[in-house]
Predict the 3D structure of the following.
Amino acid sequence: MNKPRVKRRPLISVYNHPTFVPSVIPPAPDLRFRDQRQAPSLGEVLFLPLDLLRAIPVGYLNLICATMLPDTVNLDIPACMRTLGEWTAMVKRETEKYLFQFRRNPAEYENSEAYFRILTMITVLQRDLGVTYDPECTKTHIFKSSREGFIHGLLTGDRRGTCANMPVLYLAVGRALGYPLYLTHARGHLFCRWHSVRTGERFNIEGSGVGLTTNSDDYYCSWPRPITEAEVHHGIYLRSFDPAEELGCFMATRGHILQDRGHVLDAIIAYSHAHRLSPMDPSCLGSLIDMLNKEIDLRRDGKMPTSYRQAENFKPEIYASASRFVIDDRYIQRKTGTIPDQTDSKAHSE
């Protein structure tokens, strides 16, 4: 088990000042629907008010954002939620079983029961349940599949994860146990944070690797990519997400996966929701602009931007015909009647 790093005084900003109190997130209810049709769809959760969004388990929100992707046709969300509940119960049993170790020697666990509980949770998930970090993911910025970005990749299959889904798994299990956990990010990296309004205890949770490390905010200012003090001060990075921003983070992951598959139009939709839900995150806006520019470039080249819907439903002959319609001067002139549309004229004559 990795030893915690030496804690340093964190950078002071309006968001990590000792007097700042994050929004209180109550323990999420056990999401079991008598009828699966009662479960909110992705389209519904995207526009829920913040107070209703808080009541939905973060694990379900993450899974629902993985639906309707090219490789999630057979995604079984109820089965994943059942597994998540079973893992949570196991973590609870093991925590209660070994709590005497903390009480016997608190100094071994940073004199913090919160630290002991998080250490136990990560130990059970990694050692007993086989959740592991995939070091191959650091060699590329492309998601090979949605399993690398969402927690169904940890709840099923080989259970190998990344910093995109492992912190979300810890968040889902921890909140179900009543822990005051929040999601936050550095530049290009996602992690969790314990922040208790009742006790004021606060520490970062780095579990994307082996064991638990509690890095300071200063550490993330230089790793994995540099962050300026101004970005921290204005709450762009190292700030605890609210539920809407968490959902925005999941939609950004959805956008990345669609972008990596070349589904430009679907990626634009995902990034648009991510930017709307998490406007403080510049990467969401940057990704949206990149995809919009990609669509413009494709249309200028006489190509139709691809989408998952097109891949499933469009017939090749229809797609080939549609790709001729490009928004440029010729398109405008054709619509205004300045020049005739030779393709349409030929079709009418036939």
Observations:
- The two ends are 76 Å apart (CA to CA).
- The longest strand covers residues 189-195.
- The beta strands are 132-133, 160-161, 181-186, 189-195, 202-205.
